[in-house]
Amino acid sequence: MPTISIAPGDLDALLGRALPESEWEARLAAAKGELKGRDETTGAWRVELNDTNRPDLWSAEGIARQVRSLLEGAAGKRQGYPVFAGRTSPRLEIRVDARLREVRPYIAAVRARGVAITEPMLLALIETQEKLAENYGRRRRFASVGLYAAGKLRWPLDYAAVSPDEARFVPLGFEQPLTLREILEKHPKGQAYRPILEGRPLVPIFRDSRGEILSFPPIINSRALGEVKPGDSDLLVEVTGTDLRGTVLLSNIFAANLADRGFRCERVRVTYPWETPWGREVATPRPVSEGVVVDLAEASRLLGEAAGAADLRARLVAYGCEVSGEGRGKLRVVPPPWRDDYMHPVDAIEDYAMARGYGSFAPEMPADFTVGAVHEVTSVADRVRDHLIGCGFEETIGNVLTDRATLRDRVRRGGVEPVTIANPTSELHGVLRDALLPGLLRLEGASPRATYPHRAFEVGEVQSPHADADVGSRTLVHAAALWASPDVSFSDLHALLEALGTYLDWEVSLAPQDHGTFIPGRAAKVQFRGAPRGWIGEVHPEVLDAFGIRTPAVGLEVVVAPVPETSP
């Protein structure tokens, strides 16, 4: 979970009143936060955020905004954020190059003026930038944030595509100009994030109408135009990414944060040469969520007591949401623009419970007494883990929600489509995984600097589409292992599989059969007592290239639950 550092006085200033530490500690629960102690040197609080779906809370501004909303909402007050519905100056425009559609297609921005930024304020802004890019932005692959002194810029701005050898500038932290390719090879940030753009014939560049370079997204800003210093009072925040909603959401969060600091925020118009889900012209920041419809009867059932429309409306409005009638016995709840975490009516019902306070609900003791025991599936999965760890593999835990490209296109798989989410928050969470090996390959692609060999595994649930199941899919437990090393071969992982079968008393055999993820002739079907249970093979070079993996790798994936029949 994200952990941030906050100066207590900063929280009081943002809230508009001073609260004792004990009250702040209690109020943090409304922002899904928990006080984890103080920094002995600076005295700053370390606050752990217990929800990765609320990136708007990963800052002092976000926490203070949520607490302030509850305090002011209870008093009938509500702070406005006109930037989300205001006009856009025709001068504030960013033009997107058509060639970026297949590279890093989306950009959003907000301009903020009127407050001279202080050093503590700048440090807090940079920490938020890094937290959002590293966590929500998946180490900048999904989204990244750039900060600029806007007074130096000449509008309109261009988000363009260039060859890595075509442009050069002096990056932050350097004294001499480098080409974009040299930045990827020599600059510490370029080396850290090179896998995002490595091997592409075209890469993004952000520049103004004079051709002056602001940054090389998502790698590094320029020293001339991309450095914000204390005293600057005219800022530009830019977000680039692979998903439009996620990109705009981060611009919304920064717009709200800067408005809370007293800045006057202005929208920026982004013009695309193709049709986006919101048209060819997208003014940012802007609302991103349409909200959910809450059935009052269902809310009462989940809460365990009657939920009245008036109380639901009042509590949710105080929590920052917009609430309107949606027919008899129903309410439409729309979260504020800096949130996009509503996927189901339960999310709004949870907000109501948090706004009211969990302690306000009457506890009910369980009526039944049961004795727990380890399920057979859990027992088998744990034994598989123990064996793989004993063989020198490191366990990983991946997300059940992932993207279709990783599950299918990048690993050269066809067949039945995975279970698709109807209203995903982003394309990266659009399907349920039906295999574990693609996740291990993605992890390997992000680990080029770790010393070889790399041995990783995961034992976890997958969702397999199944027409006869009640919900159209069934849950299986898979085990997958990936071994990457310059000298690894099929026989190395086959030996591991044989040892696993011996350890678990499974009768394991192989049958020759090609699989798109593996090299033809160097793959096999894994069988337990003659029944197909998975695949093993040497990973195909095209798959390695798709994930940016620069060394040979062998992979294995088998079904471990339902529990295979053991040998007699």
How is this structure best summarized?
This protein is an alpha+beta fold.
Explain what this protein looks like in three dimensions.
It is a single chain. The chain is of the alpha+beta class. It has four domains: 3-74, Phenylalanyl-tRNA Synthetase, Chain B, domain 1 (2-Layer Sandwich), CATH 3.30.56; 82-284, Phenylalanyl-trna Synthetase, Chain B, domain 3 (Phenylalanyl-tRNA Synthetase, Chain B, domain 3, 3-Layer(bba) Sandwich); 292-357, Phenylalanyl-tRNA Synthetase, Chain B, domain 1 (2-Layer Sandwich); 376-561, BirA Bifunctional Protein, domain 2, CATH 3.30.930.10. Helices cover 28% and strands 29% of the residues. It contains 15 helices and 27 strands. Strands 4, 5, 6, 7, 10, 11, 12, 13, 14 and 15 form a ten-stranded mixed β-sheet that branches. A seven-stranded mixed β-sheet has the order 19-22-23-27-26-25-24. A hairpin with a 7-residue loop joins strand 22 and strand 23. Helix 9 crosses helix 10 and helix 11 packs across helix 14. The longest helix is centred in the first third of the chain and has 18 residues, at 119-136.
**Mean of pLDDT:** 90
Strand element count: 27
Helix content: 25-40%
Q: What is the CATH top level name of the largest domain?
A: Alpha Beta
N/C terminus separation = 46 Å
What share of the residues does DSSP label as strand, in percent?
A: 25-35%
Radius of gyration: 26 Å
CATH architecture of the largest domain: 3-Layer(bba) Sandwich
- Gross morphology: globular
Low-confidence stretches: none
- Counting DSSP H or I runs of 4 or more residues, the number of helices is 15
* Total domains: 4
How would you name the CATH homologous superfamily of the largest domain?
Phenylalanyl-trna Synthetase, Chain B, domain 3
Structural class: alpha+beta
CATH topology of the largest domain: Phenylalanyl-tRNA Synthetase, Chain B, domain 3
Major sheet details: 10 strands, mixed
